[in-house]
Each structure stands twice: as C-alpha cells, then as structure tokens.
Amino acid sequence: MASVYRKETGVYYISVMFQNKRITRSLGTRSYHIARKLIPQAEQDILTELLGLGERQNKKLSFIQLVEEYLNCPNQPWAENTRIRYRYLLYNYIDKGLPDKSTTRAMTIRTVNACNNWGFKNGFIDKSVKLKGGSKWEARNKVFKQNELNQLFESIQCPAFNRFVRFAYYTGARSGEIRSLPRENIKNDHIVVNGKTGPRMVKLNEQAKEVLKEEKSLWNYSKDFVSHKFKKECRKLGIKDARFHDLRRTFGYNLIKQGMSIYKVSKLLGHASVKTTEKHYAPLLTTDIEEFVL
Question: What is the pLDDT of residue 287?
C-alpha cells in the first residue's frame, strides 16, 4: 500500500511497504495535485524494481513525469518568468487539455511539443509526438491612440501605478520585467531585467529616467494586480479591449512610424530575432502604407 508525504523542502515522496520492507522515492514535485497523479506510476516502478522485472532507470516516463523532469532540469536556458509560464501551460494542459482560445492553444501546443522533443532527445520517452496547430494563432494588433495614452497618463489616480504605466510605455518593457525591479539593476542609461531568455538590458530614454526620479521606492506588483487594475482604469475611460501588454506593442509601433528601423526596434523590445518583430508589426503597418497607383 502506497502513502504520500511531504518533506520540509516541500517535495512530495511516495512510501511503499513490500514484504516488510519500506521503500521511498521522491515524486519530484511540490504540488499535491500532481503528486496524486504520479502515485500509480511511481508505485508500479518500485514494485517492478523489487520484483526484478526491469530496471527502474530504463523505465520510460509518463507525460506527467516528463513534465516534472522538463521543468525542474537545471540546465534549461530559461528565465524564471519563462519557467513559470511553461509550468502554467503544461499543468493546465494536463488538467484540462488544450484551451479554446487560439493564441493560448497554439502556445500550449508549442510548449507540449518542446517538452516531448526534449524528453525524446534525453531518452525519457520512445517517440516524440508532435501536436499540430502550434503556428495557428491570431496576432493581437491592439495599439493605443495618442489621445488614449494621454487619458491614461492624466487619469490614473494612484501615483505609483500611474508612474508604472508611463514607465512601461516609455521603455517598451514587459510587465514581468519591471513589476519588481531591484534598485541595483538601474544603471545610468539602462536597466537590467530578466527577459524571456535571460537577463537583458532595457534602454532608458529621458522620459523613463524622469519617471524613475519620481518613483523612490520602485514597484512590487503581482501579475494579476497589474492586469486587473490596468483593465479597470481603461474601462473607466471607455477604452475597450485593452491589456497592459498593449503598451509595449504601442511603444514599438510608434517608434517604427516615427522612422526608426525595425532592426533597432527589435533590439529595444528584446526580441530574439528581427523576424519576430516583423511578424508582430507587419499586419499593423500594412494599413499605414500611403496610397499608390499601379
């Protein structure tokens, strides 16, 4: 009979009693929900090993076990925010399957495929199963008009959050890169943040520097707080279908419209490739092409 318990580290373990002998194994997770799902396979592995029916280390992993190995591997070249996002997508896929929303669905498919591919390359599974649809997503093209930006900057009553919103726009930084910005990461003309693929430098223009001078204590916001409060402020102003990330898209869009090369904008946004920038901004800029005659 197997039992599960948690050590002081927060990691769950399985304990199996067999022929007056107790065997324990780490389940490799701090989630009780995931631990419960791992019990049957872990118990079977232990009994198989004890009965001499196979080597435990040669046992292929279930998808749940593979996800745990994938997320907890110390050699993954991820920033912590990326690891958190992958954890959310993979656990949500385990619990509920693929989401209905096209963009989240495509992101989930890409993450699942990456996990399976990693597991196959490392010998944890026999075959890398690839889900289809990872590229079928709709690019969001919401940008704020200048009068909407002015309304936001003038109307948000909380001084600290007002400065946070302005700083996000003036830098084009992601919410997760500046929500808890350490003072020591602020340099003369840039800040050092944890981007999607690791640390990156975000350039500070004079407007961003002025905001930092005003904000003495810096911010310590959660993702949900920023998302909900920003949407609430936009609803007050009658700005529909607005998300905090739209500030970042507006930052890039306005710079390109001013004549800055897409290569420079790509660097400012911290995109891994200029192709990423082109993919996101090409649909927006098509409508701004001047009239032409053939």
Answer: 64
